[in-house]
Amino acid sequence: MAPTLRTPSERTCERCGRIEVWAEGIGTWRLAVDEAGDPHAVGSPYCIHEWDINGTFAPFESDAAEA
Ligand SMILES: [Zn+2]
To answer: Which Pfam families match (predicted)?
Structure first.
């Protein structure tokens, strides 16, 4: 039985608060914006983002070598 890999559709940086959403059409993360097109939270461009999806979506547990 093939494992089902759940893909998160949104992630938030635990360090700077940046919010990104998964753009499935282009296969990459994009800055989350509201209906007016303004970013919810840009965060810091110098931040080494620490995405909260590691805790919520953890299909594999031991792949945190770079943390
Ligand atoms: Zn960050």
So the answer is: HEWD
Ligand 1 centroid to 59 CA: how many Å?
22
Identity at 64, one-letter amino acid code: A
- Residue 52, CA atoms < 13 Å, CB-side half-sphere: 13
Identify whether 23 is part of a domain: yes
- The reply to whether 15 falls in a domain is yes
Residue 14 structural domain: 8-57
pTM above 0.90, yes or no: no
Query: From the CA of 14, how far away is ligand 1's center (Å)?
Result: 6
Note the pLDDT tens digit of each residue in 31-59.
999 899 998 889 998 999 999 875 445 45
* End-to-end CA separation in angstroms for the chain: 31
